[in-house]
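User: Sequence in, structure out. Go.
Assistant: Echoing your sequence, followed by the structure tokens.
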Amino acid sequence: MNVREALETERDLLVDIWLRSVRATHDFLSEADIERILPLVRDHALVDLEIWVLADAADEPIGFMGLADDKLEALFLAPEHRRRGGGGRMVDHARDLKGRLRVDVNEQNPAALAFYQSLGFVVEGRSELDSAGMPFPILHLRDPAE
């Protein structure tokens, strides 16, 4: 597995990874919620963020992350590639690029919280609503000072 910059031609592949990942890990979202969020991911996040791909040995995307300054705005893996070290590899790459990071995690996604805490992130705050004003509480995490 290696981390590289995303190609514009890979956007549909990344949307597919996002959809499959969210459906596998975000059981608190309804299908209507996912469909409401999809255009934001496809038309904004994958366009506006600095996107890095986790690629397999054949250089095919199996995951991706989106960065904005020192904030990890998105990290998604294809479900069949979870728990194989790829997420940690992407976070390490982001740290190499940006230094100490910040990340927001849905409170209703305890596996994501545990993942980031296992990498040393600490909770520094909580918001009752997500960035779209929906009732999905968000935990704000940061890399601790070294």
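User: And one key feature?
Assistant: The mean pLDDT is 92.
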